[in-house]
Amino acid sequence: MPSLNHYFFIFFLTLFFPVKEADAQGLELVFKEVIHGYSGNSTRPPEKINIFKDKGTILFSVQSNTTCKEYFEFNYNFPQQIDQFILTGKDSISFPVKAGIIALGPSCYSYNNESFRNPFTNITGSGQITFSGLISQLKSKEEWPYKNVSSIFSSRFPYSYAYNYPSGSKTGIQNGEIILSNLDKLKPGDPAFFQLKISATSPMGGPENNFYYEILMVYEVQKINNLDPCKIEIPDCSCCPGTIPIWNFKTNSGDCICPEGSKWDKMKGKCVVIED
Q1: What is the tens place of the pLDDT at every residue in 4-42?
Q2: Which class for 7: exposed (0-12), middle (13-18), buried (19 or more C-beta within 10 A)?
Q3: What is the reported pLDDT for 15?
Q4: Residues 122, 131: contact at Cβ < 8 Å?
Q5: Enclosing H/E stretch for 223
Q6: Are 121 and 192 contacting, i.e. CB atoms less than 8 angstroms apart?
Q7: Rounded Cα distance, 258 and 270, in Å
């Protein structure tokens, strides 16, 4: 049987944070994994690679001719946390991204009208991708585990090129935005992803000279667990004299706060009455 303290906790739980049906039975998008690998007609290995959820670097090269190999560095970074997004009650969500390719030296190839050979990167959401060489390869090996991928991801990101060709092309690290929309159509278990892609086509052609690479950030829609007050773990507020336990829906954990009409006094290390 719940103790008196337990009911005391439930009272303040409902007093300060009333449980709404949408919050208790809402949806969240949770980061699941990074999948990366060659894309399309490419078998050229990267010179160095460090891929993480929030940032990454790939050092790669392209064989421009029999005597010249050009080197490039691709970087991406997400300034904000991208682990989890609460979807309930929101029309759309967006978060920033920085990415781009940097040429590590002058080009040894004259592009003329072949601007497609200028190494570039772009970012697209699952709702924008018409074809993925990496996913196609994984499916052929029966190693792609996701079905009915949601199209909630899109992006606003300019193509970032290694060289300023044609003139006026955006080069280096660029700022962009990843967008989540159509959130009302989701259901638990739906997968979704967005893609960072490098495309570097060698004038010599051939998979051993081209460098095509994809990074897929995969997420899954999950149901936020119903809040059963009888199963909530009461936070220990003994460290903070005068505070009471409450439930924080943003962190899905318990917090300790001063009761109404009082505030935390850092000097005294306890809750004190607010004086008019």
Answers
A1: 344 344 444 444 444 333 333 488 899 999 999 998 788
A2: exposed
A3: 45
A4: no
A5: strand 211-223
A6: no
A7: 9
